[in-house]
Inverse folding.
């Protein structure tokens, strides 16, 4: 109950920064997501009311863009780059190794909400291919060995 | 008296990933410890040579230190003391002779470049407007507002021959003129920073490394077409670019380059940042506008009249790419003739590429239009690493194509690239060697298109999936005799019938690989062989 109240309060604070303009939808969703880490179902309802739109219209937009999540993400978000330079330098092997270590497939989150494993179209660090990102930190020139080092056994526990 | 020195620490995304922030704070500590009052430390944007990062540069000498690690810091700072010697092992070493090269201007990677748009990248602190002003920043704006009429500015841009650097190459001045002539109480200027091509990072580097040059270009554009409001649409994946642009906008406001009565003239202009939410198709201008209006970013048939007449919220809207705007201050300050003095007949000025893949030196480069592919790959790029053979170079991302060795002497400009079946695109240039499988590359790009197709029109949504399935089967050894013809037929339909450029250009990677590397497809289909040894279900 307490959590819910807190969530409502945070949402109210966010929406207070906007003018109920339909074109504010994406900025609002981005801000809600950065506050909660995902778009809680409750937030969709509140935003719909605020912008005088239907919930389905909000879902239509939220599901179109890759940034938006409708389920909670792990504490550590691992994004493996599948850009062109990364691809020809073996990104698929890197992804496979991380999938093996974390026991997750692309797009999945671990049950303990520690890790989310994802791929991105391009991080933009192509000169350091293959690369990956954990939260906001970029790791370049990845090899299977370096991946094992990053996700060493102690890290996993 | 000790000579004034500047230590520049590259803070592009690549160098930060390598630990540039830590290097910077260690340099600061060491500088304080030695009490070096003649040394100024600066954080800069991307210096270009990302692969050798973290980069540290000492000016005015122009010494470049590569792959700097925390333990190297004391030596670098101590070398600035009288009689100190710069640590040689951190220099760039010539890949052929192994000789250390201390000055970046002597390194082939920099030597053949002509840095106009990137002139400030890696040299100024992008978070400090004073640095930009010191290098002549906002003088073009002053000239435009004080000495030129709207028509004169548009004419200057037209005469320069500048073409849109987002990929399509539409003449910039012509676009401005249409927007200028459109009658409306309100107009908008949008900078398209939704760089989504995998393998391209030049827009990011420019936004991170020299944000004021983009703002200056946009303000001049706003004045020329009669707009009061500008937006920069930045890709969601570029948080550092957003941060630096925000700082730049605030500083420009404080200095009176943005806001009401700019430079005391009867001209108001404001710029706001709009963050994208992750959709490749939003680089397409009609989709970008949909997304800014709060909708799904799905393209519309291009309106007649054009977006420059009926765009955002139904108002005339000028949309240009990041690099296009960054060229504007140069054209206004130096004149159209200066701008057009380099380049080819129909492609003037410079092109910026992200040179990556199987190449010795990779990074961000700026070259005159018309330079040969060979000069880029072998002189600037230093050739193919590990003694491997060159196979292809990919330009234009998922809309472009793969060009073979026999086209290496082709000039790089809008029209030559299009003629060869590829395109300039937003500036990705990925080099591939003998270990790259061309069928796998085609499959890779189609996988990208399938993911990013918005699903609105059938040729793109269904057609690219069909092409992907065929390519996937070929790489698994399940290719059939008729597959190549079927791919060509599907390509033709998708090119002709798709609604927007995403679909219309999606077959290019397949068409060019069939055109130039047909024997590789045939080896996969008829001999169940992958000559590059990439497709793991096939023999080599």
């Amino acid at each position: 109950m307490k959590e819910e109240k807190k969530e409502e309060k945070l949402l109210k604070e966010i929406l207070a920064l906007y003018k109920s303009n339909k074109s504010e939808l994406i900025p609002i969703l981005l801000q809600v997501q950065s506050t909660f880490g995902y778009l809680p179902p409750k937030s969709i309802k509140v935003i719909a009311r605020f912008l005088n739109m239907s919930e389905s219209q909000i879902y239509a937009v939220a599901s179109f863009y890759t940034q938006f999540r409708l389920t909670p993400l792990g504490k550590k978000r691992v994004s493996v780059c599948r850009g062109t330079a990364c691809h020809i330098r073996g990104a698929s092997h890197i992804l496979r190794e991380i999938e093996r270590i974390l026991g997750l497939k692309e797009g999945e989150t671990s049950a303990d909400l520690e890790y989310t494993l994802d791929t991105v179209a391009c991080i933009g660090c192509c000169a350091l291919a293959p690369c990956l990102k954990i939260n906001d930190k970029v790791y370049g020139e990845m090899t299977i060995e370096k991946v094992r080092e990053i996700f060493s056994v102690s890290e996993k526990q | 008296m000790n000579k004034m020195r500047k230590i520049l620490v590259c803070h592009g995304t690549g160098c930060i990933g390598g630990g540039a922030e830590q290097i910077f704070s260690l340099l600061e500590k060491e500088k304080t410890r030695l009490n070096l009052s003649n040394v100024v430390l600066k954080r800069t944007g991307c210096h270009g040579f990302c692969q050798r990062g973290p980069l540290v540069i000492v000016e005015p000498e122009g010494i470049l230190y590569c792959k700097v690690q925390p333990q190297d810091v004391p030596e670098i700072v101590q070398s600035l003391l009288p009689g100190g010697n710069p640590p040689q092992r951190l220099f760039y070493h010539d890949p052929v002779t192994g000789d250390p090269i201390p000055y970046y201007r002597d390194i082939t990677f920099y030597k053949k470049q002509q840095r106009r748009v990137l002139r400030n990248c890696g040299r100024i602190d992008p978070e400090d407007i004073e640095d930009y002003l010191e290098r002549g920043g906002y003088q073009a704006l002053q000239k435009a507002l004080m000495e030129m009429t709207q028509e004169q500015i548009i004419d200057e841009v037209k005469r320069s021959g500048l073409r849109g650097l987002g990929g399509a190459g539409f003449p910039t001045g012509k676009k401005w003129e249409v927007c200028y002539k459109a009658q409306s109480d309100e107009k908008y200027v949008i900078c398209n920073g939704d760089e989504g091509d995998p393998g391209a990072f030049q827009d990011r580097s420019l936004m991170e490394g020299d944000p004021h040059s983009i703002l200056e270009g946009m303000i001049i554009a706003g004045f020329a077409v009669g707009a009061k409001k500008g937006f920069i649409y930045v890709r969601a994946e570029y948080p550092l670019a957003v941060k630096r642009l925000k700082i730049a906008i605030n500083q420009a406001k404080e200095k009176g380059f943005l806001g009401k009565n700019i430079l005391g003239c009867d001209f108001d202009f404001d710029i706001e940042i709009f963050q994208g939410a992750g959709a490749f198709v939003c680089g397409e201008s009609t989709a970008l506008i949909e997304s800014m209006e709060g909708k799904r970013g799905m393209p519309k048939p291009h309106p007649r009249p054009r977006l420059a007449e009926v765009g955002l919220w139904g108002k005339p809207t000028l949309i240009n790419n990041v690099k296009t705007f960054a060229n504007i201050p140069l054209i206004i300050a130096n004149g159209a003739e200066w701008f057009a003095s380099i380049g080819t007949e129909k492609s003037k000025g410079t092109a910026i590429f992200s040179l990556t893949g199987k190449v010795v030196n990779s990074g961000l480069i700026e070259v005159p239009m018309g330079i040969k592919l060979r000069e880029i790959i072998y002189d600037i790029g230093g050739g193919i690493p590990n003694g491997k053979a060159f196979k292809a170079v990919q330009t234009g991302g998922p809309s472009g194509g793969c060009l073979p060795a026999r086209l290496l002497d082709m000039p790089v400009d809008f029209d030559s690239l299009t003629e060869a079946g590829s395109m300039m695109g937003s500036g990705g240039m990925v080099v591939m060697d003998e270990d790259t499988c061309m069928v796998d590359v085609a499959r890779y790009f189609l996988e990208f298109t399938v993911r990013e197709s918005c699903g609105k029109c059938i040729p793109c949504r269904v057609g690219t999936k069909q092409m992907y399935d065929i390519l996937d089967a070929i790489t698994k050894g399940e290719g059939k005799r008729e597959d190549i013809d079927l791919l060509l037929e599907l390509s033709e339909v998708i090119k002709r019938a798709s609604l927007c450029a995403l679909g219309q250009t999606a077959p290019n990677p397949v068409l060019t690989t069939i055109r130039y590397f047909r024997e590789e497809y045939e080896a996969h289909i008829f001999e169940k062989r992958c000559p590059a040894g990439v497709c793991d279900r096939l023999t080599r």
Summary: The first strand of chain A starts at residue 76 and ends at 81. The CA atoms of residues 108 and 128 of chain A lie 26 Å apart. The first helix of chain A runs from residue 2 to 15. Residues 2-64 of chain A form a domain with the Arc Repressor Mutant, subunit A fold (CATH 1.10.10).
